[in-house]
Automatic annotation (TrEMBL):
<dbReference type="GO" id="GO:0050501">
    <property type="term" value="F:hyaluronan synthase activity"/>
</dbReference>
<keyword id="KW-0472">Membrane</keyword>
<keyword id="KW-1133">Transmembrane helix</keyword>
<keyword id="KW-0808">Transferase</keyword>
<dbReference type="Pfam" id="PF13641">
    <property type="entry name" value="Glyco_tranf_2_3"/>
</dbReference>
<dbReference type="InterPro" id="IPR029044">
    <property type="entry name" value="Nucleotide-diphossugar_trans"/>
</dbReference>
<feature type="transmembrane region" description="Helical">
    <location>
        <begin position="77"/>
        <end position="96"/>
    </location>
</feature>
<feature type="transmembrane region" description="Helical">
    <location>
        <begin position="37"/>
        <end position="57"/>
    </location>
</feature>
<feature type="compositionally biased region" description="Basic and acidic residues">
    <location>
        <begin position="1"/>
        <end position="12"/>
    </location>
</feature>
<keyword id="KW-0812">Transmembrane</keyword>
<feature type="region of interest" description="Disordered">
    <location>
        <begin position="1"/>
        <end position="27"/>
    </location>
</feature>
<feature type="transmembrane region" description="Helical">
    <location>
        <begin position="378"/>
        <end position="401"/>
    </location>
</feature>
<feature type="compositionally biased region" description="Low complexity">
    <location>
        <begin position="17"/>
        <end position="27"/>
    </location>
</feature>
<protein>
    <submittedName>
        <fullName>Glycosyltransferase family 2 protein</fullName>
    </submittedName>
</protein>
<feature type="transmembrane region" description="Helical">
    <location>
        <begin position="439"/>
        <end position="459"/>
    </location>
</feature>
<keyword id="KW-1003">Cell membrane</keyword>
<keyword id="KW-0328">Glycosyltransferase</keyword>
Length: 475
């Protein structure tokens, strides 16, 4: 509604217009306040980073003395040697990732006649009206209608999710089939029901808080036609609610690096380690071959109720299939807007990472695939080294903070300024330059308030629970 139309309506209907004017004015004020707050956060981010870099320059002698002190002790020298070796390895690995990224190209969509039949499964729990938007976006897909089976499964929601599924059914008719679990049994069981009902040659899973582009499905499943060894495909995930709060803005920049850089490199090695629940596709035969193991998966004697996407990816890799990434298959998903929801999501991901790295260790050094397996092993080593070195580096960090807190803070801020620049440049090159600066803010947030996630996830890897499923849904 434009301003002139609102003014005209005010003259016609005083009561109705007053409400609209107040709403418009309130909305405008809120937007200005949000914009001002965003600018202040970014200004403070760069003041902090610039201050850290300046102090590091000023304290060069102190850093030199600290290094000398550490190298003079046996344990200090050992740690320095290990840290230097890991730095060289990480630098080399990063250069290799760059090489792989520049060689990566998504598979172009095949023709309608070539497209396989697909079963799209949307599990939902306490999603409310968002599931309706998800199903509508999928129904608008540029995909032959006779080749698509759309299933929505309510996992015993306690809110009005089932109502909105019914509303979607009324509007979409035969385009969608809806099912309701008798009780909440978890996302894995909802997907399991969909896998058993589905008739498609390819299964596609989409989270109920996500929406897709019209060409997403056809782009996502095309690799199964061009590569007969392809067992799974990861979609490209962006943030849907990035205009609502600071955290989603930061996460959108982080997601772009995680998917468009990291997974592009992994895809060149045919070994994407995780196909995201928000958007992923699986060859039917590959799923059915590991379905009993997947649904009955346990960790330390307890049923696995998290990490169903990473587990499925792992089991498909184990069968010798290729797992690829499609940069041109977009899904936009809601992410937590509050710190509590964010750290709980990361804990869940962290625990799943620990579990699946252990599972991957059992087969990655066997003859699990025809052809080269070096890429898969390199990716596994990169993941495993982060977990193995987690506690030693945590102890060193705590020691550094206790002995030289100022040196720690300044060196950390200077490192963030340097390392986050690649992420910012990468995002700016792909999308909006103005949004790329959130890479620096996110790095500060993660470094100083989320550093504990990995060590905590390792220590509590055996714990079950989704953690965020009972949180109130955002907007």
């Amino acid at each position: 509604m434009n301003l002139k139309k609102t003014t005209s309506e005010t003259k016609t209907d005083a009561n109705g217009t007053t409400s609209n004017s107040i709403f418009s004015s309130s909305s405008s004020t809120s937007e200005k306040a949000t914009k001002t707050w965003n600018i202040l956060v970014l200004i403070n981010t760069f003041l902090l980073l610039a201050g850290g870099a300046f102090l590091m320059y000023q304290m060069q002698n102190d850093f030199a003395q600290f290094r000398t002190e550490r190298l003079s002790s046996t344990w200090g020298f050992i740690f320095f040697a290990i840290a230097s070796s890991l730095f060289v390895y990480k630098a080399g690995f990063f250069i290799y990732q760059l090489y792989l990224y520049f060689r990566y190209k998504p598979v172009e969509s095949v023709t309608d006649d070539e497209l396989p039949t697909v079963t799209v499964i949307v599990p939902a729990y306490n999603e409310g009206k968002q599931v309706w938007a998800t199903l509508k976006s999928l129904a608008k897909s540029d995909y032959p209608k006779e080749k698509i089976q759309l299933l929505a499964i309510d996992d015993g929601s306690k809110d009005d999710t089932w109502y909105w599924m019914q509303e979607a059914k009324k509007q979409l008719g035969e385009q969608v089939a809806i099912y309701q679990q008798p009780e909440n049994k978890g996302k894995r069981h909802a997907l399991y029901r969909g896998f058993n009902i589905g008739t498609g040659e390819v299964f596609v899973t989409v989270d109920s808080d996500s929406v897709v582009n019209a060409d997403t499905l056809r782009n996502l499943v095309s690799p199964f036609i061009t590569n007969e060894d392809c067992g799974a495909v990861a979609g490209n995930i962006r943030v849907l609610n990035n205009a609502k709060a600071l955290l989603p803005r930061m996460l959108d920049v982080s997601f772009v690096l995680s998917f468009e850089f990291v997974r592009s490199a992994e895809s060149r090695l045919k070994s994407v380690l995780c196909t995201p629940g928000a958007l992923a596709a699986y060859r039917r035969d590959a799923v059915l071959s590991c379905l009993p193991e997947w649904i009955n998966q346990t960790f330390m004697g307890k049923p696995s109720d998290i990490g169903e996407d990473r587990a499925m990816t792992n089991m498909i890799l184990k069968q010798g299939y290729h797992v690829l990434f499609q940069r041109n298959a977009y899904a936009y998903t809601n992410v937590p807007e509050k710190y509590k929801g964010l750290y709980k999501m990361f804990i869940r991901w962290g625990r799943s990472n620990v579990r699946e790295n252990i599972a991957m260790a059992k087969y990655v050094f066997t003859d699990f695939r025809e052809g080269s397996k070096a890429g898969s092993r390199l990716l596994f080593f990169s993941q495993a080294s982060k977990l193995i070195m987690c506690y030693p580096f945590l102890l060193f960090m705590l020691y550094f903070i206790l002995v030289h807190p100022v040196l720690f803070v300044t060196s950390t801020l200077a490192s963030i300024l340097v390392l986050s620049s690649f992420q910012a440049i990468f995002y700016a090159n792909r999308y909006k330059f103005s949004e790329s600066f959130w890479a620096y803010t996110y790095s500060i947030l993660y470094t100083f308030s989320l550093f504990w996630i990995t060590p905590y996830a390792i220590a509590t890897a055996s714990r079950s629970g989704w953690l965020t499923r009972e949180l109130p849904q955002q907007g």
